[in-house]
């Protein structure tokens, strides 16, 4: 396959030899050493495409570098990801906003709004829903001082929308009779991992079923514990965020 990178620049064409692409993937040093040749003679044109021709295993990808870029040394601004539960009660929605500086408490955050008609939480003729920040966690995906903001949803008049189950729970837990108690919670995290190409559980024989659970229960090893890297990544992300897991 050929890879194309588009940018508001002059159209150039880069050709790589077959041998060069077979030996290793493209690196930044290789990128810097490549000579770019203008694809057409004559004056440079504006508003054209920046094109790279390369084989699939040599695709130049700066996206990962940018996603992992730590902007903390360069700016006080942070990204706050506002997160809420959608109308089905099981779908998670979110959107990002830039804050001028890091914050430590939800009270420092502004309320925000969204179109509830698009999430099944408001009618089209009166669709505005207001997000109330309720908790802050460190963002394990973006890192740095960026945060995840857990929100619940209200009407513009300050009334919890019907799918805002947290409001009723907060009312119960703020009752003096409950405050004096020490509640315990046990929530077990389970995973059902499906292979995207065949829509079949990860590790199962395609179109078939595994044997009895004996060897797999609390199992270890690549032939028994399938997708463990996902659960380990989730585990560490929770610890990083400050979640008591």
From TrEMBL:
Residues 96-121 are annotated as: Disordered. Residues 78-158 form the GS beta-grasp domain. One of its GO terms (biological process) is glutamine biosynthetic process. The keyword Ligase applies. InterPro entries: Gln_synt_N, Gln_synt_N_sf, Gln_synth/guanido_kin_cat_dom, Gln_synth_N_conserv_site, Glutamine_Synthetase. It comes from the Eukaryota. Coiled coil: none annotated. Gene3D superfamilies: Glutamine synthetase, N-terminal domain (3.10.20.70), Glutamine synthetase/guanido kinase, catalytic domain (3.30.590.10). One of its GO terms (molecular function) is glutamine synthetase activity. GO terms for cellular component: cytoplasm. The keyword Ligase applies. Pfam families: Gln-synt_N. Keywords: Ligase. Belongs to the glutamine synthetase family. Homooctamer. This is Glutamate--ammonia ligase. It comes from Cichorium intybus.
